[in-house]
Input
Amino acid sequence: MSPSSHAAAATDLLEQVRSGGHVPRHVAIIMDGNGRWARERLLPRPFGHRSGMKAVREVVQGALAAGVAHLSLFAFSNENWQRPHAEVSALMALLEEYIAREVDELADRGVRVRVLGELDRLAPSALAAVQLVESRTAHNGALTLNLFISYGARRELVSAMRAMARDVAAGRLTPEAIDEGEVGRRLLTRDMPDPDLLIRTSGEQRISNFLLWQLAYTEIYISPVFWPDFGREELFEAIRDYQRRERRFGKVSPQGA
Ligand code: IPE
Ligand code: IPE
Ligand code: MG
Output
């Protein structure tokens, strides 16, 4: 397809999303396939990560246009620290570059950026970039962009459990008072709704330690496309698919089955 016919297809899909019913309030994405995208082109893996930045731009614009309130992107997992040093460095450099390049536009478009994860593992320059984008965009409200970096759900849950144990030991909490709300309030996602839709790119069918608690009733959409090739059209297609589903939350269909 030519660039103009891509744009026309995206506009058409956006119309369908807007008229197709409920738009997911919170979309979470496991951005996967950068390495394979590069390998297909006989390029080193960091080239795939660099191309992935364009896809981030695309989905942010798409989420804004569709009226999604929260967009959560899994950018770097706790386990990803075990990749070769050169790849980890390239990814961290790209995080800083992404923030430097996009901060003005994100601020102008009303996007609030939050970076969630074990940020004490970041280099000082990366941490400074994170603090800059968070403070520059803190008052925005059109879309909240949650970037999960140095994040793993099991460790997030362990921290929450430890915090509750501390509260019990200090007499601030009784074991009987521990419920889903108490757990949820101790997670990084405490002030956002659970994801309605989880997208994973590159055809992989696993969660890879992302938001284990929060995804309990999330609709899952697997796209075969490698992350660098994912764009607005693919996002709108995923939302259209979501809009055709029936979420039952363990109950029976209201139509009766
Ligand atoms: C996703 O692409 C980016 C990160 C996990 C940081 P990958 O780097 O996992 O790409 P593949 O899965 O090897 O193709
Ligand atoms: C999941 O992708 C993590 C991110 C997208 C940041 P991985 O490529 O690291 O996951 P696995 O190894 O395929 O499970
Ligand atoms: Mg991968």
Summary: The chain has one domain: 21-152+196-243. The longest strand covers residues 143-151. The chain is about 45% helix and 15% strand.
